[in-house]
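Convert to structure. Protein one:
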Amino acid sequence: GMHGLHPKATPYLVPNMPPMVNIRRLGPPRSGQKLTCLFGSWNNHWKNMYANVVAAALSERVGKVLCYAPVELPAHLSAKIERVSYDTREAHFRKLSLCDLVLNATVVDCHPMVELEALAVGTPTLRGELDLDFGHDHPFCRLMTVSSVHDPIALRDQIDRISMVPGGELADIVADYRRLVVVTSLERYARLFEDAQ
């Protein structure tokens, strides 16, 4: 809708693509007995770290929650939390490829980079409602999206639902959504360049 402010702005979203990396999952998500989740961001009000981390800590289906940011929780919730360092971009992608679920139910977002990075390696991402104009009816969006991002119980329940999807089926859903993002991005960039001429 930015074309309402300036006539040269595009009236459609031009989404980013998942980055090209040489790191892939060795197996489908959820290959272990319990999920390993990653909160791969920092702690601020829109990243919603505590709701994400508390939700995962409350889930009996989650064994470990990795966090880049320091987390202070009561002892009964902190047992699953492990602080990890970001290190390098390659190390970050390795962590994404080894975890089962990325926690990114943010307060507001367009298409967050951490989700695009997770898609690049084939890992699903728990998320809030995104400001996208495509894919809302895709199985990935229906399974990964929560409407109550401030409610750790709702987030926990969604994590549990995700964990019940067989690993191979979940991998197919993630791969198909990744294809949708790439195709949509390529089509919109082509349209953008055509419109610019």
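Protein two, convert as well:
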Amino acid sequence: VTEGQEWMPQTGKQENTIQFNYFRDSELINTKYRDGAKNFKLVKDAELIFYNIDSIKDGETCIITEGEIDCLSWIEAGITNVISVPNGAGKGQKLEYLDNCFGYFDNKTKIYLSTDNDEPGRLLRDELARRLGIERCYKIDFGELKDANEYLIYHGSEKLKCLLETATEF
């Protein structure tokens, strides 16, 4: 994660941004920019891949989140085999990033789906499970809270980690 000035099309001017750098095999593939008003942009024409994809290369389990902040929330809780989709849970997604990274899931026996607790998040979760294999996917339940970041804020890192133990099968 870095920060710096970037021209944002939503405001039509340079903005101070947080920058989520997308690496694969330690090579920078893409960058997502987020300004203080939560406007986003990705590098034009860059390949779409999961954020933090190198973290799941070798392990048999991983967590997939809906956003980079949720990914970082799991990392703050001490769980590092976690990735994020690059563009949230919008309607009609092709999940191009999954096609670009599908080989990373060949060795996975458990895939925890940590998407937002709303309709778009549930649709993304269900589509990821369908494509990755329902038999190895598990749902993370945030109760009345929205996502991993909100759960971390309200309950702390130890309780966030415990959600892996209570994850349910499809």
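The longest strand covers residues 13-24. The chain has a mean pLDDT of 96.
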